[in-house]
Amino acid sequence: MDGPFATALSLIASGDPGLMQIIGLSLRVTLTAVLIACAVGLPLGAALALARFPGRGAVIVLFNALMGLPPVVAGLVVYLLLSRSGPLGSLALLFTPTAMIIAQTLLILPIVVSLTRSVVEDLWAEYREQLRSLGAGRLRAVPTLLWDGRVSLLTGVLAGFGRASAEVGAVLIVGGNIAGHTRTMTTAITLETSRGNLGLAVALGIILMMLTLTLNAAAWGAGQWARGRLG
Fold first, then answer.
1. Are 199 and 8 in contact (CB under 8 A)?
2. How far apart are CA 9 and CA 214, in angstroms?
3. Section 72-81 average pLDDT
4. Is residue 184 within 8 Å of residue 29, measured between CB atoms?
5. Angle 221-227-231 from CA coordinates, rounded to 5°
6. CATH for the stretch 26-188
7. Which of 26, 129, 157, 189 has the fewest other C-beta atoms within 10 Å?
8. Percent of the chain residues past pLDDT 70, beyond the cut
């Protein structure tokens, strides 16, 4: 067992170019997907929390169900959209980082929307009268409610990041795991383990775990800081 771990630590310490390229692509794809999901999901979730329209309950149930969308299904949907015979085939995005970003956004978006809807709905119920007394209707209250629920929303964003960064199926289907082009940490771990190249697989696993722990520690610290200010 010492061999793979020694090799992994050596690769990390030396900043192996192949390792760094895989890590860089993984972060770029996942962070871009998170930003897109937040840009769309935060206002959409807030609107879903405050708006009243026929079929609202069905929309809420749909987004809640999509939180458990199997990654391979998301990958298949994106593949069908981007394939040559698909409606977006002319864009030639299949087996590119852009296709991987689309697939990961599809996985993260329901998490952001559903959590935002829940947080904003609870905050509106708590502060509705106070906000209305200040002249803030439902629409004008959205920025205030999103800011007030930022710590809880950060938890949801991190959950989305964690799901996307640990995902294999969807990115493998739409990205193809092409060396130097669409190979991410998770797909590389799968490939290198099957090849018996455990040193690189372990190195990527260590980086992925460190990244996850760092983000969750940051979220916990932000929560503690916010509670301290409120206290």
1. yes
2. 18
3. 94
4. yes
5. 145
6. 1.10.3720.10
7. 129
8. 94
